[in-house]
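Course assignment 3, question 2. Fill in each field.
Student: A.L.
Task: Predict the tertiary structure for the chain below.
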Amino acid sequence: MDKVAKHIVFIGQVQGVGFRFIAHSVANRYGIAGFVRNCFDGTVEMLAQGAAEDIDACIGDIKESLVGCIRETRIEEVPIDPRYKEFKITF
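Answer field:
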């Protein structure tokens, strides 16, 4: 299974609702590497690296867990960053 990397931006009422902790838990369940962090503009940014199916399922689970909070999700495939071996909450 080939690994891919996706940069995801979640837009809506996504800060102050436990988003990063939920994303961390879900990403670890799927064995995804990368990070999640709050951005100054009120969005949440995530880098997810792993199998494409696992990343898509992870994003789906996050959306389901935070239904009503996420208004828009922007997803872009990016090059793999070998620095990420696990999933972290960054600040």
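Instructor remarks: The radius of gyration is 12 Å. The chain has a mean pLDDT of 97.
Grade: pending
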